[in-house]
Amino acid sequence: MAQITAGTWNFDPTHTEIGFTVRHIMSKVRGKFEKFEGSITTKPEISESTATATIDLSSINTGTPDRDAHLRSADFFSVESHPTMTFTSTGVLEKSDTEFVVTGDLTIKDVTRPVELSVEFLGEGKDPWGGTRVGVEATTTISRKAFGIDFNIPLEGDKVMIGDKISILITGEAVLAA
């Protein structure tokens, strides 16, 4: 069983990144969300632990301002009417001392779908500022169309400009609340 101190852990935004990758024509585009908040509440029985996150969709950054503006528009996230994406865990399955499967509900544009995150526990320890931190890395793949994000442009040969599968990678540090 993993040895994680029971308590509430708040993600440190300066040491956490929520990134994604999506197929675009013949390559892949990478991006991240720069504003978010989230927490993990660990329990002595790890299966009773929970996690939540709220992501500010207007903070999307792919390194191309025009593309980011288009992603904020009604073609994609509709951030004026749906400013956030949320995740709430529904279960935790411990696979080993460092590997977990966290199930939960992901909501984008008022559409909620179940997702499974493969989570690697990277460790727990003291930081130089007197706090206690944990490190985690989580991955999942979702269908953007399942969340009502189906904008696309057809290309020659039955191809499309934007892939349906979105790979998500969360690399984070969280600080134990006092």
From TrEMBL:
<dbReference type="Pfam" id="PF04264">
    <property type="entry name" value="YceI"/>
</dbReference>
<feature type="domain" description="Lipid/polyisoprenoid-binding YceI-like">
    <location>
        <begin position="8"/>
        <end position="175"/>
    </location>
</feature>
<dbReference type="InterPro" id="IPR036761">
    <property type="entry name" value="TTHA0802/YceI-like_sf"/>
</dbReference>
<dbReference type="InterPro" id="IPR007372">
    <property type="entry name" value="Lipid/polyisoprenoid-bd_YceI"/>
</dbReference>
<protein>
    <submittedName>
        <fullName>Polyisoprenoid-binding protein</fullName>
    </submittedName>
</protein>
<comment type="similarity">
    <text>Belongs to the UPF0312 family.</text>
</comment>
